[in-house]
Amino acid sequence: MDIKEIASNLCVRHGTNDPFRIARNLGYSIVFTCLVGIRGFYQYINRCNIIYIDSSLDEHQARFVCAHELGHSLLHKKMNRIFMDTRTHMVTSRFEKEADKFAVDLIFDDYELQNLIEYSTQRVAECLGISYELAEYRMGSVNPQLYQ
Description:
Layout (H helix, E strand, L loop, with lengths): L2 H12 L4 H7 L3 E5 L6 E6 L2 E7 L4 H17 L5 H7 L5 H15 L2 H4 L7 H8 L3 H8 L9
Parallel strand pairs: 1-3
Antiparallel strand pairs: 2-3
C-alpha cells in the first residue's frame, strides 16, 4: 500500500482528514510545548503514542506538523530519528520526505484540490502553504476526472 492509500484509508475510517481528531481517535496523546530548534516530534514509549508540537506554531503549521508526526508513527513506528541522527550514519531525509508526503496526502484530498488543477505548482504551493516540492508531489497524484 502506498502513502496516499494509507492516508486515504485513515480518512475514510475516521470520517475526517483532521490529523488531531485522527490521532486522538487512535488514542495518541498530543502535547503542545515549547520546543527549540524543531517544530514537533513523535515518541513511542511504554506502548503510548505521543506527538509533541511546538506551542508557538500557528494553527495551519500545527496541523501540518501533527499530520507529519502521525505519518512517522504509522510509516516508521520502530524508527528513532533522534538516535539515528546522533548515533548512526543513516540518512534520515527519506523518512522526513515520506512523513511530509503523508501529511499532504492526509490533509488535502483530491476533491478539495480539483479547483487548483489549472494553477501553476508555485501558485498551488502558495495557496496551500506548503513547499513547491510537496505541491508538485500532491498535485501530481490528483485524479482530475474524479469529481467531474
